[in-house]
Write a structure and sequence with these properties.
By secondary structure, this protein is mainly α. The protein has a domain of about 40 residues. About 60% of the residues lie in helices and about 0% in strands. The protein is built from three helices and no strands. Helix 2 crosses helix 3. The longest helix has 16 residues. The chain is flat. It starts with 9 loop residues before the first helix and ends with a helix.
């Protein structure tokens, strides 16, 4: 089985963020927290909806 796919799924995108990013990368934790915070009614998360919670979690980590 190949590690990457020619036609990636949403799950494989998330897996790529987690596996290929640095283990100490702040953005991974901020992204995960922000995704939990975003109120959504579908599986689609818009950048406009993710920007504020993501920025807030990045700033909290930097404090």
């Amino acid at each position: 089985m190949r590690f990457y796919q020619a036609d990636p799924t949403l799950e494989s995108y998330w897996r790529g963020v987690i596996l290929f990013g640095s283990n100490f990368a702040t953005y991974k934790f901020a992204l995960a927290h922000a995704l939990y915070d975003v109120e959504r009614h579908s599986t689609l998360v818009l950048l406009e909806d993710l920007a504020v919670p993501f920025s807030r979690h990045i700033c909290e980590h930097l404090k």
